[in-house]
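Fresh eyes needed here. I'd like your take on this protein's tokenised backbone:
***
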Amino acid sequence: MDEIFIYLVFSPIIIAQLVGYWKLFEKAGEDGWKALIPFYSFFIVLKIVGRPWWWVFYSLIPLINIFVGIGVYVDLLNCFGKTRLKDHALGILFSFVYLPYIGFKEDVKYIGTLEELPAQKKSTAREWTEAIVFAVFAATLIRWLIMEAFTIPTPSMEKSLMVGDFLFVSKFHYGTRTPKTPLQLPLTHQKIWLTNLPSYLDWVELEQYRLPGLTEIKRNDVVVFNVPGIAENNFEEYDRSKWIDYPVDLKTNYIKRCVALPGDVLKIENKQVIVNGESIDNPDKMQFSYIVQSKTQLSERVLDKLDIEATGAPNFQGDRAVQLFYLTESEKQTLEEQPFVIEVKPFRSYGQGEWESNIFPNDKELFPWNSDWYGPLTIPKAGQTIKINKETLATYGKAITLYDHNENAEIREGKLYIDNQEVTEYTFKQDYYFMMGDNRHNSLDSRYWGFVPEDHIVGKGFFIWLSLNANKSFFSKVRWNRFFQLIE
């Protein structure tokens, strides 16, 4: 579905934009083929409009690249005589049509750099103010309706998604949610940039609706969602008195793989996920934790050659180096084949019936589960009715009282009350999903905090547009092989 959508919709759009740039480059005296080279093409645009060459580095800075990119794009239009607000609006919102249009239009000529343009009635400050205001409006609209940039902050999805990956999240796949918290600074989430100040006011909260989407969530989709629990939303704040109960659309964004859909029965047996009695396909780059004993510390050069990343520094036990790794099956086999490696063994391997203290549902008597042996667990589905008892309250009580849109639902003395009336049966009002990270032993996911409500779904992980390795030096930070990879 994604591949077909890319080829049928995005490929023609991208090709049309490149054709437009090609023609404009030629009109400005540059070779048209330069429009095809990422980053270098932006350097050429800066040259054409007369901006400093080093502005090309702005394209690597999230958020800043939006403002600078749209501002320089407006400069480019001005350099071809398209100075009206209407031209700027058409150029930004419909660039795939407008760029080829002015590129092939014979009476559109390159006038010169910004310094060479005829005197304008508007000051430079006013032009930039208008450009920035329009950029904020356009970026906010695109971010809400179509796509949003997202950065991978943790290794819970490695190596499918890596720390330092910058990706676009599609809002239109599952349908865009209407805003719940309208009083919010544009292009912010929970806090104002570089501060600890809230970026929103909760004086007004609207009912949320979901616009029609292209598809529904499918098993094994990589999904971005607002993590439901207040503890997960305040993960780094140890003082509970400072915890913030964010509105749904401002809860912390997580990205995981959907392994079970509404109504599914999920089990994990010896690390293998089983849904409705059948083993599901494992992610190609699924990882587990291992202890590696070697004759000497594995050097960065060796690990780079093997394309394996270390997790912290090794411990030394006599003449052996002992180190924790999160490895795919192929990486495990590669390490075992190395002459300097003594042993590769599982680091954390629970047995069946062995209880993990922070597992969901958190009841050792009823659910002696762990992350490797889990379930069976039925995922709630809209319209599904359950009996209310000790087991179902332990499993679904949080969903019913916190997320299923019941204003006066509470659990007292092992019983469920809604509007102060005891309830012995309950019918779910929305769908729920079960999410897991591909790095199975290093992921805080549904195994630990429960179900993801449908109204918490943000969008589908779509493709990677940049990937930076923070552990590398300046010139080798960029992971070029991950550019424009579809997320699977």
